[in-house]
Amino acid sequence: MDALTERFERERPRLRAVAYRMLGSAAEADDAVQEAWLRFHRTDAAEIDNVPAWLTTVVARVCLSALRSRRNHPEEPLDGQPEPDDERRDPAQEAELADEVGLALLVVLDALGPAERVAFVLHDMFAVPFEEIAPMLGKTPAATRQLASRARRRVKGGTAADAGLPRRRKVVEAFLAASRGGDFEALLALLDPDVVLHADRFAGPTPAPIVLQGVESVRRGAILASERARASELALVDGAPGLLMVREGRLAVVLAFRVEDDRITGIDVIADPDRLAKLELAVID
User: Is the alpha carbon torsion for 234, 235, 236, 242 positive or negative?
Assistant: First the structure.
């Protein structure tokens, strides 16, 4: 038993990394790894030719089942009621894991179908061959390769290269840095004098949408939202540089920017779940 435990513990960090990238939740990842341990404990290890590969397959199958269940039976907690794993959630631990992966990548991965997510994570992030992934998904290696390719396009953005993208990205990165640091002068330099900020009714402290016009109003709003900016990360939003804010592992707010002549002319603050679901999000390299 000690030998089995030691063998499993050597694999635990990698298995947890696999499960977290698939599920986006530290608590669920730990559950998947624990299930792998229980199955490993019930199996004669002498019959396993490749223990790391066997354990990866078990974790992947457990995660695939969880992802399919999540999609088929989404849980909608009652207002004011904690989610089932709230008591087990360690915010510091979640933040550390999210930093390792990247908030934007977790959000984009969450938009993938279960089979796409498993194929992409195992192949592109952990170099598992398609021939080993295919049986997990009940597909041929060629079909599994197509799933990973489709997921890759969605993760990295499938649009043609935009010559102006790097310049707009620099502007949005500068806005994020200035907002986080409360840099008044830097914000003034980035905002067009006639800039307009629109925030839907889910984004602000009031039940009605908010419209801020003019550089001074938008600057003050950005400074007040500095805490929100610290939890934000750069991403592509409908093909343009924007910001994502994730709360407890889930996409909470998106900032979409209009940039002209290296100045921000418009900011759309989106928190409406229906609008968030329709956005095309991708990771910026």
Answer: negative
